[in-house]
Amino acid sequence: MLFLLAVTSTYARSNHSECNDINDCRRLFDIVWGCLVTLSLCIWVSVHPNVPPLCPEPPKGNGLRFLRWWLVDSNRHIFQRLKLMTVALIAPELILGFAGRQLQMAHFLSHQHGVSLTHAFFIVMGGFVDADGHPIVTQQQLKIQDVVKEIHRVPKLDIQDKSKGDFFSKGIALCQGLWFITQCIARRAQHLPLTELEVVTLAFATINAMTWLLWLRKPLDVRSPITLSVHTTPPNHVGSRPYPGHMTRVKRFAFLFANSYSQAEYDPLSATSVPTFWCTTYTDYNTLPGWSESTITIFGQFACGTLFGGIHFAAWGAPFPSVVERWLWRSSTLALVILPVFFCVLMMIIGALDLPPQRIKYPTLAVIGGLYSISRGILLVLPLTTLRSLPSSAFADVNWSVYIPHL
Q: Is Transmembrane tagged as a keyword (predicted)?
Protein backbone atom coordinates (compact mmCIF):
# COMPACT_ATOMS: atom_id res chain seq x y z
CA MET A 1 0.00 0.00 0.00
CA LEU A 2 2.81 2.43 0.86
CA PHE A 3 4.59 1.56 -2.40
CA LEU A 4 1.40 2.21 -4.36
CA LEU A 5 0.96 5.52 -2.56
CA ALA A 6 4.52 6.57 -3.43
CA VAL A 7 4.08 5.66 -7.08
CA THR A 8 0.71 7.35 -7.45
CA SER A 9 2.03 10.48 -5.75
CA THR A 10 4.43 11.06 -8.63
CA TYR A 11 1.55 10.96 -11.11
CA ALA A 12 -0.81 13.03 -9.02
CA ARG A 13 1.68 15.81 -8.27
CA SER A 14 0.90 17.70 -11.44
CA ASN A 15 -2.85 17.40 -10.93
CA HIS A 16 -2.94 19.47 -7.75
CA SER A 17 -0.54 22.14 -8.89
CA GLU A 18 -3.40 24.64 -8.69
CA CYS A 19 -3.50 24.22 -4.90
CA ASN A 20 -1.02 26.84 -3.81
CA ASP A 21 -2.38 27.41 -0.30
CA ILE A 22 -1.74 24.41 1.98
CA ASN A 23 -4.64 25.49 4.21
CA ASP A 24 -7.16 25.07 1.40
CA CYS A 25 -5.80 21.87 -0.11
CA ARG A 26 -5.13 18.30 0.85
CA ARG A 27 -2.45 15.92 -0.33
CA LEU A 28 -2.80 12.47 -1.82
CA PHE A 29 -1.36 11.12 1.41
CA ASP A 30 -4.16 12.83 3.37
CA ILE A 31 -6.83 11.18 1.21
CA VAL A 32 -5.37 7.68 1.45
CA TRP A 33 -4.47 7.94 5.12
CA GLY A 34 -7.92 9.19 6.11
CA CYS A 35 -9.58 6.31 4.26
CA LEU A 36 -7.23 3.69 5.71
CA VAL A 37 -7.65 4.91 9.29
CA THR A 38 -11.44 5.05 8.98
CA LEU A 39 -11.65 1.63 7.35
CA SER A 40 -9.29 -0.01 9.86
CA LEU A 41 -11.02 1.43 12.92
CA CYS A 42 -14.51 0.59 11.65
CA ILE A 43 -13.62 -3.03 10.87
CA TRP A 44 -11.61 -3.53 14.06
CA VAL A 45 -14.38 -2.29 16.35
CA SER A 46 -17.34 -3.78 14.46
CA VAL A 47 -15.97 -7.34 14.46
CA HIS A 48 -16.91 -9.33 17.59
CA PRO A 49 -15.39 -12.84 17.42
CA ASN A 50 -16.62 -15.90 19.26
CA VAL A 51 -14.68 -17.30 22.20
CA PRO A 52 -11.50 -18.87 20.74
CA PRO A 53 -9.97 -22.21 21.80
CA LEU A 54 -8.03 -22.10 25.04
CA CYS A 55 -4.33 -21.46 24.69
CA PRO A 56 -2.37 -24.66 25.45
CA GLU A 57 0.34 -24.69 28.06
CA PRO A 58 3.77 -23.64 26.74
CA PRO A 59 6.08 -26.58 25.98
CA LYS A 60 9.19 -27.04 27.99
CA GLY A 61 12.42 -25.80 26.52
CA ASN A 62 13.24 -23.02 24.06
CA GLY A 63 13.26 -24.92 20.77
CA LEU A 64 11.03 -24.87 17.70
CA ARG A 65 8.05 -26.21 19.63
CA PHE A 66 8.16 -23.23 21.97
CA LEU A 67 8.57 -20.85 19.01
CA ARG A 68 5.50 -22.36 17.35
CA TRP A 69 3.53 -22.04 20.58
CA TRP A 70 4.62 -18.39 20.97
CA LEU A 71 3.79 -17.45 17.36
CA VAL A 72 0.70 -19.59 16.66
CA ASP A 73 -0.92 -21.30 19.64
CA SER A 74 -0.77 -18.31 21.99
CA ASN A 75 -2.26 -15.99 19.34
CA ARG A 76 -5.29 -17.97 18.24
CA HIS A 77 -7.63 -15.18 19.31
CA ILE A 78 -5.77 -12.79 17.00
CA PHE A 79 -5.99 -15.18 14.05
CA GLN A 80 -9.71 -15.65 14.63
CA ARG A 81 -10.28 -11.91 14.68
CA LEU A 82 -8.13 -11.39 11.57
CA LYS A 83 -10.20 -14.03 9.79
CA LEU A 84 -13.38 -12.12 10.56
CA MET A 85 -11.76 -8.82 9.57
CA THR A 86 -10.67 -10.29 6.23
CA VAL A 87 -14.22 -11.38 5.46
CA ALA A 88 -15.48 -7.96 6.62
CA LEU A 89 -13.09 -6.32 4.16
CA ILE A 90 -13.99 -8.54 1.21
CA ALA A 91 -17.72 -9.04 1.87
CA PRO A 92 -19.00 -6.90 4.79
CA GLU A 93 -22.60 -7.92 4.11
CA LEU A 94 -21.73 -11.51 5.10
CA ILE A 95 -20.48 -10.36 8.50
CA LEU A 96 -23.60 -8.22 8.90
CA GLY A 97 -25.78 -11.26 8.18
CA PHE A 98 -23.73 -13.28 10.67
CA ALA A 99 -24.26 -10.59 13.32
CA GLY A 100 -27.98 -10.45 12.57
CA ARG A 101 -28.40 -14.21 13.00
CA GLN A 102 -26.47 -14.18 16.27
CA LEU A 103 -28.64 -11.34 17.57
CA GLN A 104 -31.74 -13.20 16.47
CA MET A 105 -30.63 -16.37 18.27
CA ALA A 106 -29.60 -14.39 21.37
CA HIS A 107 -33.05 -12.76 21.57
CA PHE A 108 -34.69 -16.18 21.29
CA LEU A 109 -32.54 -17.70 24.06
CA SER A 110 -33.06 -14.64 26.25
CA HIS A 111 -36.85 -14.99 26.10
CA GLN A 112 -36.82 -18.78 26.16
CA HIS A 113 -34.70 -19.13 29.30
CA GLY A 114 -35.24 -15.81 31.05
CA VAL A 115 -31.64 -14.61 30.89
CA SER A 116 -30.30 -11.21 29.92
CA LEU A 117 -29.31 -10.48 26.34
CA THR A 118 -25.67 -10.34 27.46
CA HIS A 119 -25.97 -13.87 28.91
CA ALA A 120 -27.71 -15.04 25.72
CA PHE A 121 -24.97 -13.60 23.53
CA PHE A 122 -22.40 -15.30 25.75
CA ILE A 123 -24.18 -18.62 25.16
CA VAL A 124 -24.27 -18.13 21.40
CA MET A 125 -20.58 -17.22 21.20
CA GLY A 126 -19.48 -20.29 23.18
CA GLY A 127 -18.77 -18.42 26.41
CA PHE A 128 -20.16 -21.06 28.78
CA VAL A 129 -18.58 -24.51 28.98
CA ASP A 130 -19.58 -27.49 31.12
CA ALA A 131 -17.43 -29.29 33.67
CA ASP A 132 -15.89 -31.36 30.87
CA GLY A 133 -14.87 -28.28 28.92
CA HIS A 134 -17.52 -28.59 26.17
CA PRO A 135 -19.28 -25.39 25.03
CA ILE A 136 -22.95 -25.12 26.01
CA VAL A 137 -24.55 -23.82 22.84
CA THR A 138 -27.53 -26.03 21.95
CA GLN A 139 -31.09 -26.21 23.21
CA GLN A 140 -30.55 -29.86 24.08
CA GLN A 141 -27.75 -28.88 26.46
CA LEU A 142 -29.69 -25.96 27.95
CA LYS A 143 -32.65 -28.20 28.77
CA ILE A 144 -30.52 -30.40 31.00
CA GLN A 145 -31.29 -29.96 34.68
CA ASP A 146 -29.49 -27.12 36.49
CA VAL A 147 -27.74 -25.77 33.35
CA VAL A 148 -29.89 -22.64 33.08
CA LYS A 149 -29.78 -22.21 36.88
CA GLU A 150 -25.98 -22.19 36.72
CA ILE A 151 -26.09 -19.57 33.96
CA HIS A 152 -28.42 -17.40 36.05
CA ARG A 153 -25.92 -17.52 38.90
CA VAL A 154 -23.22 -15.87 36.76
CA PRO A 155 -23.45 -12.11 37.34
CA LYS A 156 -23.83 -9.96 34.28
CA LEU A 157 -20.89 -7.85 35.44
CA ASP A 158 -18.61 -10.90 35.32
CA ILE A 159 -19.42 -11.36 31.65
CA GLN A 160 -18.98 -7.67 30.87
CA ASP A 161 -15.67 -7.71 32.72
CA LYS A 162 -14.36 -10.28 30.22
CA SER A 163 -15.13 -7.94 27.33
CA LYS A 164 -12.12 -6.02 26.00
CA GLY A 165 -14.27 -3.31 24.45
CA ASP A 166 -15.02 -0.10 26.32
CA PHE A 167 -16.69 3.21 25.61
CA PHE A 168 -13.36 4.93 24.90
CA SER A 169 -12.15 2.56 22.17
CA LYS A 170 -15.55 2.31 20.52
CA GLY A 171 -16.04 6.05 20.87
CA ILE A 172 -12.84 6.80 18.96
CA ALA A 173 -13.93 4.60 16.06
CA LEU A 174 -17.42 6.10 16.13
CA CYS A 175 -16.07 9.67 16.08
CA GLN A 176 -13.69 8.85 13.23
CA GLY A 177 -16.51 7.28 11.22
CA LEU A 178 -18.86 10.21 11.85
CA TRP A 179 -16.12 12.69 10.97
CA PHE A 180 -15.43 10.89 7.70
CA ILE A 181 -19.13 10.80 6.79
CA THR A 182 -19.44 14.50 7.65
CA GLN A 183 -16.52 15.30 5.34
CA CYS A 184 -18.13 13.34 2.50
CA ILE A 185 -21.45 15.16 2.96
CA ALA A 186 -19.71 18.54 3.14
CA ARG A 187 -17.73 17.87 -0.04
CA ARG A 188 -20.87 17.01 -1.97
CA ALA A 189 -22.64 20.07 -0.52
CA GLN A 190 -19.80 22.28 -1.80
CA HIS A 191 -19.74 20.49 -5.18
CA LEU A 192 -16.33 18.97 -4.55
CA PRO A 193 -15.74 15.48 -5.96
CA LEU A 194 -15.24 12.39 -3.86
CA THR A 195 -12.49 10.04 -4.92
CA GLU A 196 -13.42 6.46 -5.64
CA LEU A 197 -11.45 5.39 -2.57
CA GLU A 198 -13.55 7.68 -0.38
CA VAL A 199 -16.78 6.32 -1.86
CA VAL A 200 -15.71 2.74 -1.11
CA THR A 201 -14.68 3.71 2.42
CA LEU A 202 -18.06 5.38 2.94
CA ALA A 203 -19.81 2.15 1.90
CA PHE A 204 -17.69 0.09 4.29
CA ALA A 205 -18.21 2.56 7.14
CA THR A 206 -22.01 2.40 6.68
CA ILE A 207 -22.23 -1.41 6.70
CA ASN A 208 -19.73 -1.77 9.55
CA ALA A 209 -21.68 0.74 11.64
CA MET A 210 -24.79 -1.42 11.22
CA THR A 211 -22.79 -4.52 12.17
CA TRP A 212 -21.51 -2.75 15.28
CA LEU A 213 -25.09 -1.91 16.29
CA LEU A 214 -26.21 -5.53 15.90
CA TRP A 215 -23.31 -6.70 18.08
CA LEU A 216 -23.61 -3.83 20.54
CA ARG A 217 -24.56 -6.14 23.45
CA LYS A 218 -22.15 -8.92 22.49
CA PRO A 219 -18.96 -9.06 24.61
CA LEU A 220 -15.89 -8.11 22.59
CA ASP A 221 -12.68 -10.13 22.27
CA VAL A 222 -13.33 -12.60 25.11
CA ARG A 223 -10.26 -14.82 25.54
CA SER A 224 -11.54 -17.55 27.88
CA PRO A 225 -14.95 -19.11 28.71
CA ILE A 226 -16.76 -19.41 32.05
CA THR A 227 -16.88 -23.00 33.37
CA LEU A 228 -20.12 -24.24 34.92
CA SER A 229 -20.26 -27.11 37.39
CA VAL A 230 -22.63 -29.23 35.31
CA HIS A 231 -22.24 -32.09 32.84
CA THR A 232 -24.09 -31.97 29.53
CA THR A 233 -22.78 -35.16 27.88
CA PRO A 234 -25.38 -37.97 27.96
CA PRO A 235 -24.14 -41.45 28.96
CA ASN A 236 -24.82 -42.97 25.54
CA HIS A 237 -23.25 -40.15 23.52
CA VAL A 238 -20.94 -41.20 20.68
CA GLY A 239 -18.40 -38.50 20.00
CA SER A 240 -17.40 -37.35 16.53
CA ARG A 241 -14.20 -35.92 15.15
CA PRO A 242 -13.43 -32.38 16.36
CA TYR A 243 -14.29 -29.55 14.00
CA PRO A 244 -13.35 -29.13 11.16
CA GLY A 245 -12.44 -32.84 11.01
CA HIS A 246 -13.14 -34.26 7.56
CA MET A 247 -14.73 -31.06 6.20
CA THR A 248 -13.28 -29.54 3.05
CA ARG A 249 -12.34 -25.88 2.76
CA VAL A 250 -15.15 -25.36 0.25
CA LYS A 251 -17.73 -26.66 2.72
CA ARG A 252 -16.27 -24.56 5.52
CA PHE A 253 -16.51 -21.52 3.24
CA ALA A 254 -20.19 -22.30 2.67
CA PHE A 255 -20.90 -21.68 6.37
CA LEU A 256 -20.18 -17.99 5.74
CA PHE A 257 -23.67 -17.85 4.25
CA ALA A 258 -25.58 -20.09 6.70
CA ASN A 259 -23.72 -19.95 10.06
CA SER A 260 -25.64 -23.04 11.21
CA TYR A 261 -24.33 -26.58 11.57
CA SER A 262 -25.64 -30.11 11.88
CA GLN A 263 -24.28 -32.55 14.48
CA ALA A 264 -22.35 -34.39 11.76
CA GLU A 265 -20.55 -31.15 10.89
CA TYR A 266 -19.96 -29.85 14.40
CA ASP A 267 -20.65 -31.57 17.71
CA PRO A 268 -20.12 -29.32 20.76
CA LEU A 269 -19.80 -32.41 22.98
CA SER A 270 -16.69 -33.39 21.02
CA ALA A 271 -15.10 -29.91 20.99
CA THR A 272 -13.73 -27.34 23.39
CA SER A 273 -14.78 -24.23 21.43
CA VAL A 274 -17.19 -23.13 18.73
CA PRO A 275 -16.22 -22.46 15.08
CA THR A 276 -15.38 -18.93 13.98
CA PHE A 277 -18.72 -18.51 12.18
CA TRP A 278 -20.81 -20.43 14.67
CA CYS A 279 -24.30 -19.16 15.32
CA THR A 280 -26.54 -22.17 16.02
CA THR A 281 -27.52 -25.62 14.81
CA TYR A 282 -29.95 -26.39 12.00
CA THR A 283 -32.30 -27.96 14.53
CA ASP A 284 -32.35 -24.97 16.89
CA TYR A 285 -32.66 -22.48 14.04
CA ASN A 286 -35.72 -24.30 12.71
CA THR A 287 -37.39 -24.11 16.14
CA LEU A 288 -37.47 -20.30 16.10
CA PRO A 289 -41.06 -19.06 16.50
CA GLY A 290 -42.62 -18.35 13.13
CA TRP A 291 -40.87 -17.78 9.84
CA SER A 292 -40.86 -13.98 9.83
CA GLU A 293 -37.76 -13.46 11.99
CA SER A 294 -35.50 -15.79 10.04
CA THR A 295 -36.87 -14.49 6.74
CA ILE A 296 -36.26 -10.88 7.76
CA THR A 297 -32.70 -11.75 8.75
CA ILE A 298 -31.94 -13.42 5.42
CA PHE A 299 -33.58 -10.75 3.29
CA GLY A 300 -32.03 -8.03 5.44
CA GLN A 301 -28.59 -9.38 4.61
CA PHE A 302 -29.31 -9.18 0.89
CA ALA A 303 -30.84 -5.73 1.30
CA CYS A 304 -27.65 -4.52 2.97
CA GLY A 305 -25.68 -5.97 0.07
CA THR A 306 -27.80 -3.85 -2.26
CA LEU A 307 -27.27 -0.81 -0.01
CA PHE A 308 -23.53 -1.42 -0.03
CA GLY A 309 -23.54 -1.46 -3.83
CA GLY A 310 -25.89 1.52 -4.05
CA ILE A 311 -23.48 3.78 -2.19
CA HIS A 312 -21.03 3.26 -5.07
CA PHE A 313 -23.44 5.21 -7.28
CA ALA A 314 -21.94 8.32 -5.66
CA ALA A 315 -19.01 7.95 -8.08
CA TRP A 316 -21.18 7.21 -11.13
CA GLY A 317 -20.37 10.52 -12.82
CA ALA A 318 -16.90 10.94 -11.35
CA PRO A 319 -13.95 11.43 -13.72
CA PHE A 320 -11.98 8.23 -14.34
CA PRO A 321 -8.51 7.87 -15.87
CA SER A 322 -9.94 5.81 -18.74
CA VAL A 323 -13.28 4.87 -20.28
CA VAL A 324 -12.68 1.20 -19.47
CA GLU A 325 -12.30 1.94 -15.76
CA ARG A 326 -15.44 4.08 -15.80
CA TRP A 327 -17.58 1.31 -17.25
CA LEU A 328 -15.99 -1.33 -15.07
CA TRP A 329 -17.03 0.75 -12.07
CA ARG A 330 -20.56 1.29 -13.36
CA SER A 331 -21.17 -2.30 -14.39
CA SER A 332 -19.80 -3.64 -11.10
CA THR A 333 -21.96 -1.22 -9.13
CA LEU A 334 -25.05 -2.31 -11.03
CA ALA A 335 -24.14 -5.96 -10.38
CA LEU A 336 -23.85 -5.39 -6.61
CA VAL A 337 -27.26 -3.70 -6.56
CA ILE A 338 -29.17 -6.05 -8.88
CA LEU A 339 -27.77 -9.50 -8.06
CA PRO A 340 -28.98 -9.67 -4.40
CA VAL A 341 -32.46 -8.53 -5.46
CA PHE A 342 -32.51 -11.03 -8.32
CA PHE A 343 -31.48 -13.85 -6.00
CA CYS A 344 -34.20 -13.03 -3.45
CA VAL A 345 -36.88 -12.90 -6.14
CA LEU A 346 -35.63 -16.16 -7.62
CA MET A 347 -35.72 -17.90 -4.23
CA MET A 348 -39.31 -16.78 -3.67
CA ILE A 349 -40.29 -18.14 -7.08
CA ILE A 350 -38.56 -21.46 -6.35
CA GLY A 351 -40.30 -21.69 -2.98
CA ALA A 352 -43.71 -20.83 -4.45
CA LEU A 353 -43.39 -23.38 -7.27
CA ASP A 354 -41.78 -26.01 -5.00
CA LEU A 355 -38.93 -26.59 -7.46
CA PRO A 356 -36.01 -28.91 -6.60
CA PRO A 357 -33.23 -26.75 -5.07
CA GLN A 358 -30.43 -29.11 -6.15
CA ARG A 359 -31.08 -28.42 -9.85
CA ILE A 360 -31.95 -24.73 -9.71
CA LYS A 361 -31.03 -23.11 -6.41
CA TYR A 362 -27.45 -24.30 -5.97
CA PRO A 363 -26.26 -23.77 -9.58
CA THR A 364 -27.91 -20.35 -9.63
CA LEU A 365 -26.30 -19.47 -6.30
CA ALA A 366 -22.90 -20.49 -7.70
CA VAL A 367 -23.33 -18.29 -10.79
CA ILE A 368 -24.63 -15.30 -8.85
CA GLY A 369 -21.93 -15.72 -6.22
CA GLY A 370 -19.25 -15.85 -8.91
CA LEU A 371 -20.49 -12.69 -10.65
CA TYR A 372 -20.87 -10.92 -7.30
CA SER A 373 -17.33 -11.87 -6.25
CA ILE A 374 -15.87 -10.61 -9.52
CA SER A 375 -17.71 -7.30 -9.14
CA ARG A 376 -16.53 -6.95 -5.54
CA GLY A 377 -12.95 -7.61 -6.61
CA ILE A 378 -13.17 -4.94 -9.31
CA LEU A 379 -14.50 -2.38 -6.83
CA LEU A 380 -11.63 -3.18 -4.47
CA VAL A 381 -8.95 -2.68 -7.13
CA LEU A 382 -10.32 0.33 -9.04
CA PRO A 383 -10.22 2.77 -6.07
CA LEU A 384 -6.46 2.19 -5.90
CA THR A 385 -5.74 2.37 -9.62
CA THR A 386 -7.68 5.61 -10.04
CA LEU A 387 -5.39 7.35 -7.55
CA ARG A 388 -2.82 7.73 -10.32
CA SER A 389 -4.87 10.44 -12.02
CA LEU A 390 -7.17 12.49 -9.84
CA PRO A 391 -8.76 15.81 -10.91
CA SER A 392 -7.34 18.95 -9.37
CA SER A 393 -10.67 19.64 -7.61
CA ALA A 394 -10.26 16.39 -5.65
CA PHE A 395 -7.39 18.01 -3.75
CA ALA A 396 -9.42 21.06 -2.74
CA ASP A 397 -10.35 20.92 0.93
CA VAL A 398 -13.75 21.67 2.44
CA ASN A 399 -14.29 25.28 3.41
CA TRP A 400 -15.53 24.78 6.95
CA SER A 401 -15.79 28.53 7.63
CA VAL A 402 -19.09 28.69 5.75
CA TYR A 403 -20.67 26.50 8.47
CA ILE A 404 -19.31 28.58 11.37
CA PRO A 405 -21.45 31.58 12.35
CA HIS A 406 -19.45 34.80 12.32
CA LEU A 407 -20.08 38.52 12.44
A: yes
